[in-house]
Amino acid sequence: MQSKRGRLDRYLCNQLQTHRKAVRELLLSGNVSVDGLVVKDMDKQVDEFSYIQLGDQILQANTPVYWMLHKPTGVVSATKDTQHKTVIDLLDCEARDELHIAGRLDLNSSGLLLLTNDSRWSDALMSPTQKVNKVYRVSLANPLTEEYIAAFAAGMYFSFEDITTQPAKLVILTRNVAEVTLSEGKYHQIKRMFGRFRNPVVGLHRLSIGDIVLDDTLAPGEGRALTSLEVACIS
Ligand code: URA
């Protein structure tokens, strides 16, 4: 999702369906304010959460919303789907139709899913340069061996995308259960990595994204707003 930051004059041209000359005059008249302050500068940068007024008229007043959901299996990580229930259908949040997903989970995966209407925040979270760690608990059909640890740490080449995965950490928890930490999120990455060992994933649960940990008081299908501390983890 692209961040919606841009120049105030462009925003006003669009919003008021008028041309730049008229917008310049409006600005010079001192009738436009952003976040409570009069702005006369055409180049002023605004985003989707800037509070913009023209005289007494409110042109834009959006509140950023950040939400965590304990995604159950069998629910699709999309905003619309013709076949399955979507994660949006589960949210008990007024702004739910404005939210987008920051890091999808497969239909049969469960665990921490983050949703927001703040594209700058979700872009930072998903940016490859930020290398935000995602921790998964993975249940496998067959027993794990020490070989997996080295293979995940070394990275695996995927010819389809012509990429080598970033070093990933694998900790063997029990015979058939591992904890895997990824700093990226390629398509079906964990299933494909275990696929190299012909070891099918039978359960995949995301425990955390960066410092945001799935709240263990949330049953599958339940969600809550993020705390301000959790929101501030990503910047
Ligand atoms: N890797 C997968 O294969 N599936 C997920 O849902 C998440 C990571």
From TrEMBL:
<dbReference type="InterPro" id="IPR042092">
    <property type="entry name" value="PsdUridine_s_RsuA/RluB/E/F_cat"/>
</dbReference>
<protein>
    <recommendedName>
        <fullName>Pseudouridine synthase</fullName>
        <ecNumber>5.4.99.-</ecNumber>
    </recommendedName>
</protein>
<dbReference type="GO" id="GO:0000455">
    <property type="term" value="P:enzyme-directed rRNA pseudouridine synthesis"/>
</dbReference>
<dbReference type="InterPro" id="IPR020094">
    <property type="entry name" value="TruA/RsuA/RluB/E/F_N"/>
</dbReference>
<dbReference type="Pfam" id="PF00849">
    <property type="entry name" value="PseudoU_synth_2"/>
</dbReference>
<dbReference type="InterPro" id="IPR050343">
    <property type="entry name" value="RsuA_PseudoU_synthase"/>
</dbReference>
<comment type="similarity">
    <text>Belongs to the pseudouridine synthase RsuA family.</text>
</comment>
<dbReference type="InterPro" id="IPR006145">
    <property type="entry name" value="PsdUridine_synth_RsuA/RluA"/>
</dbReference>
<feature type="domain" description="Pseudouridine synthase RsuA/RluA-like">
    <location>
        <begin position="66"/>
        <end position="194"/>
    </location>
</feature>
<dbReference type="GO" id="GO:0003723">
    <property type="term" value="F:RNA binding"/>
</dbReference>
<dbReference type="InterPro" id="IPR036986">
    <property type="entry name" value="S4_RNA-bd_sf"/>
</dbReference>
<dbReference type="GO" id="GO:0005829">
    <property type="term" value="C:cytosol"/>
</dbReference>
<comment type="function">
    <text>Responsible for synthesis of pseudouridine from uracil-516 in 16S ribosomal RNA.</text>
</comment>
<dbReference type="InterPro" id="IPR020103">
    <property type="entry name" value="PsdUridine_synth_cat_dom_sf"/>
</dbReference>
<dbReference type="GO" id="GO:0160136">
    <property type="term" value="F:16S rRNA pseudouridine(516) synthase activity"/>
</dbReference>
<dbReference type="InterPro" id="IPR018496">
    <property type="entry name" value="PsdUridine_synth_RsuA/RluB_CS"/>
</dbReference>
<keyword id="KW-0413">Isomerase</keyword>
<dbReference type="InterPro" id="IPR000748">
    <property type="entry name" value="PsdUridine_synth_RsuA/RluB/E/F"/>
</dbReference>
<keyword id="KW-0694">RNA-binding</keyword>
